[in-house]
Design goal:
The protein is an alpha/beta fold. 31% of the residues lie in helices and 19% in strands. Iron/sulfur cluster binds next to helix 1 and helix 6.
Amino acid sequence: MMKRVLTTCPYCGVGCGFYLDVRNERLVGVIPSKSNSVSKGYLCVKGWHAHEPIQHPDRLKKPLIKENGKFKEASWDTALGYVAGRLKEIKDKYGPDALAVCTSARCTNEENFLMMKFARAALGTNNVDHCARTCHVPTVAGLNQSFGSGASTNSYDELPYMDCILIIGSNPTEAHPIAGWRVRSAIDNAAKIIVCDPRKILPAENASVYIQQYPGTDIALINAMIQFIVSEGLHAREFIAKRTEGFDALWEIVKDYTPESVKDITGVEPALIKEAAKLYATSKRSCIMYSLGMTEHTVGTDNVIAMANLSMVCGHVGKEFSGVYPMRGQNNVQGACDMGALPNVYSGYQPVSDEQVRKKFENAWGVTLPAAKGLTLTDMMFKAIEGSLKCFYIIGEDQLRTDPNTHWIEKALDSLEFLVIQEIFLTETARKADVVLPGASFAEKDGTFTCAERRFQRVRKAIEPIAGKTDGQIIYEIAKRLGYPMESDPEKVCAEMASLTPLFRGVSFERLEENGLQWPVYSNEHPGTPVVHLEKFIRGLGKFIPVKHKPPAETPDNEYPFILTTGRMLFHYNTGTMTRRTMNLLREYPRNFVQINPQDAQRLGIKKQEKVRVKTRRGELEVAAEVTDKVKAGVAWMPFHFSDEPTNVLTNNAFDPVCRIAEYKACAARVEKINSL
Ligand code: SF4
């Protein structure tokens, strides 16, 4: 029996559409959807192979319960009853805030809504968070302060028609390839590209201006661009006067950031900063595209605010063919944020501290809800080590490989009384669990994902869940055993979410059938919103917020003279749980490596592909050296996709004070020739 099921890619936040080919309940291939408005018949190499890991022999098929340090298979009924019993026991003994849940940006919107409802209504805690804490939560915090909404302002369809695209801290060719293809179309249409990145990424080859700033110096760079633009009278005076507030306060800080004054901080020639600033400001259709290179810093929120300032100074936001594009990492990290899988808000960013909002959810859910905001994922780790957090229920996240300073995360997980992991493979984090519940992949469930252009899109079941249940059904079963039955049918969960969420009121499975909908969708008649902040910003006036350069938490010294920065590759995805089980992807890059500049290699006597030791104050790894002028002298770059050689043993668990994201993008490191010791 053959069937072809239209669905949405489970990898990056671009949100490409494809058909899964199914033959006798086996996934046999992927066919791009020509009518999908995001991908228009194109896919990157990960999308083309998205079916391969789903029916891999390593898939978890039975619940596992740990006894005397060893996992034993259990029936669903036994495992679910045990989990519910332990959750209840811990809640009764220590109170609801001794429990926390981590939802998953890999799961559907409906499952994220269910999980945040589970935490709040069934467990009674706002301790709910997800991996946006390690990627784009500064976008939510920063753009929300500046514009009133923490999401992309414009749509992918506008990209090919831009005159100028400023790409900063983002590598669309590798991390968001189909968005990278849209950038390529813009270049073909004669757009000018400005690339600001510590690494000479592929778009830099086609850039009119390439700026290779040191990691962690973006605010100095952006403030200098603003300083030059305003000094030269290139700013959008009318836009600033009519649509914004706080310009004088911004100028008071920014006026001292001349391109000359930031040369030593950024390592960038003033003439290059001026050229980039002029090009961005004077092009008619200019936008900014950024990603984790901007957010994964102790100043991640300020970095985002700096970019919002730059866009408003030039009037390049709040209209078509302009804007700020945060390229979201995971397939549904936008949706997980939107669904309220955050410790301070319900779905649609409705604050838990707002009494009226809380009453609305209490009436709908028939329980009293906690008013104080919960713990962030970062603070859950601190509280676990301190001893006040006793239990963690994690869906679809491998914190031992994704979070900074692996030894610190290990200590946090080891401190818990009870750890439940819901996963499709036995990840490193799952090995630490007391109970492992086998989850379901994107191909085994119905629901929706929301991509980086705020578009809800359908996810459709192609095969039956391999372990027998979807993630939503598992959450439902545990909630039922806790005495709080919830609706678990995805279409009905979507309807419940829409009824409680003004931003998504007009979202329904029926309306998403064709090509999805971009939020806000205020009613059943509302057509969706390709461009936000037209006429006025969601917060009313756009707000200039002055931000100052602060160095990374760790800077190079004699002992650790390199700045280590990390990133993604085309052929792998996050911890590689799926891509390293995809033969065609693993073949391209089977092992971890470090990129260093030829000058550094020569100085240290390191040859191409020689195994070297990379060391930080937190740990060390031995990996092959890739000697390349893609990185500046003094900078080392590593991907983080390799579970056996985990880069995050090196990264720094220093955090942004506002949104608690870690500084993955800059820490002090040493690169050593191994046989010289
Ligand atoms: Fe999937 Fe992203 Fe590649 Fe599109 S660009 S096919 S969403 S991984």
